[in-house]
Amino acid sequence: MSHRIVIVGGGAGGLELATRLGRTLGKRGQAKVTLVDANLTHIWKPLLHEVAAGSLNSSEDELNYVAQAKWNHFEFQLGRMAGLERAEQRITLAATLDERGDVLMPERQLGYDSLVIAVGSTTNDFGTPGAAEHCLFLDTREQAERFHRQLLSHYLRAHASQSERTEQISVAIVGAGATGVELAAELHHAAHELAAYGLDSIRPENMRITLIEAGPRVLPALPERISQPVHKTLEKLGVTVLTNAAVSEVTRDNLHTAQGETIVASLKVWAAGIRAPDFLKDLDGLESNRINQLQVRPTLQTTRDDNIFAFGDCAACPQPGSDGRNVPPRAQAAHQQASLLAKSLKLRIAGQALPEYRYRDYGSLISLASFSAVGNLMGNLTGSVMLEGWLARAFYVSLYRMHQMALYGTFRTLLLMLSDRIGRSTEPRLKLH
User: Fold this and answer.
1) Which of 2-16, 344-358, 367-381 has the lowest mean pLDDT?
2) Is 309 helix (H, G, I), strand (E, B) or coil?
3) Residue 426 maps to a domain
4) How many helices (H) and strands (E) does the chain have?
5) How far is it, in rounded angstroms, from Cα 243 to Cα 382?
6) For the chain, what percentages of helix, strand and coil (3-state, to nearest 5) are there?
7) Number of structural domains in the chain
8) What value does the mean pLDDT take over residues 384-401?
């Protein structure tokens, strides 16, 4: 019987790992590789702010898991992990329901020899009163599309009223990390595009965007030499940036800060902080931290079970020489860990020792829609190089192309790039439905 590898989570890291293993171990019959996800399609999570603003049509950039599995010699199982039995080496998948609530697939179990958990993270509202009820989150495609529909509804209502009075729309974004900053810039871009298409009852200058950060500066996880030009660019675009402003309560029409300030907002997005899914906490005795991340060793094996691996945002992996800090929850870390695990699982089947993961920071890039981009690249030969403008934007776009190449290969990625180029001349620049 071939080695059974089950990967739970079809995000960027999990899907890349399943594809790599399928092309090697699966194709040769050395392992049965199974990918589990609660959705039928994948979209790269760093693009969700573009989906929310309407800059990206998610139906055109999604990947179908079933097709990807067929092309790359692994199996796909639709379902959500609901339980783990370590002694029997099997996981439980919850029943899948259709739109009417009828059982599409019953609860079932999958056995494994090596289990890889890559379920990512969700937004952490830190228990802030009213946040869950009145804020939108951008953890999934469905949430991003919901925000886009609400944004478009404001414009369509204002346009249909045929009033000579110029309407206003106020958007508040809590959290000035990469998602919050990029969303603010994309929304400013969307306001100009919507006006260009005739929905000008709300003029671009009347979309009031407020970016709220509890810390002293935007992009707190990145170097200050990046956050300063980003802050200046946002203000030039008309975005109100509030720092040292911790949101203490959210109501239907307002956000209240601990400093006593009230921000009026008809649309509210919470993009501050992360936490791993709740089901990981105390999962059959596995060790987890306060934000539900599974504790792993440098080999990415969980601390209490050598048969179970975890990586990406859902794993707390120690970072050597960093005073006890963990590897940061970034896309490049998940990519690096997926590449390591593709090698590690081959070595495990061969009975050989596993390598240890060491995080390598290759820099950061932040996109400010079509207006600008900023970031730094880091390498052994170049050191740290600051990038701005069109060059930074080109490198930012290349990150997505690299993700596509890992999944589709070079030739198909080139075809996708050609298709995107043709589509720009035949489709609206903004999704209008």
Assistant:
1) 367-381
2) strand
3) no
4) 12, 27
5) 33
6) 35, 25, 35
7) 2
8) 69
Q: Residue with structure tokens 């600051």?
A: 386
Please say if the pLDDT value at position 425 is more than 70.
no
Rounded to whole angstroms, how far apart are CA atoms 226 and 221? 10
One domain, residues 263 and 287: no
Last residue of a domain, one of 349, 382, 405: 349
- Is residue 382 one of the residues assigned to a domain? no
Residue with the two structure tokens 């090697």: 24
pLDDT, residue 356, reads: 95
Q: Quick one: 14 and 67 in the same domain?
A: yes
Which of 102, 82, 100, 99 minimizes the C-alpha distance to 90? 82
Beta carbons within 10 angstroms of residue 315's beta carbon: 30
Task: Clarify whether residues 66 and 104 are in a common domain.
Answer: yes
Measured torsion, CA atoms of residues 378, 379, 381, 387, in degrees rounded to the nearest 10: -30
Bridge-based pairing of strands 267-270 and 169-174 is parallel
34 in the same domain as 11: yes
| pLDDT more than 70, % of the chain | 91
Whether residues 258 and 286 share a domain: the answer is no
Last-in-domain residue among 255, 270, 285: 270
**φ/ψ bin of 208: left (φ > 0), alpha (ψ from -120 to 50), beta (otherwise):** beta
* Containing structural domain, residue 54: 3-121+276-349
Burial of 54: CB neighbours in 10 Å, binned 0-12, 13-18, 19+: buried
